[in-house]
Amino acid sequence: MNSKNSGEHLNGGSATKKALILEAARAIGKPRFTPAEIEQIRRQLIAKLGPHGSTSEDYIGSVLEEAGLRVSWSKESDAGPVGHYDEELSDLLHFSTLAEAEMCLIRLDELLRKFHSEHQRGGEQRVREVALLGRRRAEMIARNRKVDPHKRAEKEEIARWFGVWLETPDAFFDWLEVRKQSPEFQKTFPEGWDEEV
């Protein structure tokens, strides 16, 4: 009922947009949000806020996930073995450190190889979708000027890791070892890297 005021406060401010996304999600009331529901929320934002409401699906998905709601990017995620891994895959994307990001990629890599060996194309595709979402999320935080510069640098690094893994999963872990020994990496991240994790 206060959507006019909400629009006035928007001017790119994400707090109002987030509130409207969550309000729309509550109204939809689904246990899981697929691309169809996310598109529905995106259209509602445009209807309420006009041009200011234009929002990417990735952003809407990340707001829903941050609020603890389940997002499924794959339309076939409830079918067969892919659905079995869906929850595990979405939980993997909670990483706040470089070490956690590395563990996330190790697990994604394990699942990709498992699906590949079992000839489950849908599962392989789902793993890649989740990795792509991880990269996009990291890029989004890296571009946010309100975030601490060191945290932004970390997220930029993590986005690079996801990008390399998506392009060349077989060579990724060798590349990562070389990357961590590079002077640029050592200078940017001198502390807070726990090799044991």
Q: Spatial order of the strands in the main sheet?
A: 1-2
Strand content: under 5%
Largest sheet: 2 strands, parallel
Q: Total helix count?
A: 10
* Helix residue percentage: over 70%
* Helix-strand string: HHEHHEHHHHHH
Number of strands: 2
- Which shape, going by the Cα principal axes? flat
Q: Into how many domains do the coordinates divide?
A: 2
Low-pLDDT ranges:
1-12, 76-82
For the residues shown, what is the average pLDDT? Answer: 79
Rg, nearest Å = 18 Å
Helices and strands: which structural class?
mainly alpha
The rounded distance between the terminal residues' Cα atoms is: 49 Å
Describe this structure in words.
The protein is an all-alpha fold and 197 residues long. It folds into two domains: 69 residues, no CATH class; 109 residues, no CATH class. Helix content is 72%, strand content 2%. It contains ten helices and two strands; from the N terminus they run ααβααβαααααα. α7 runs antiparallel to α8. The N and C termini lie far apart (49 Å). The N terminus is likely disordered.
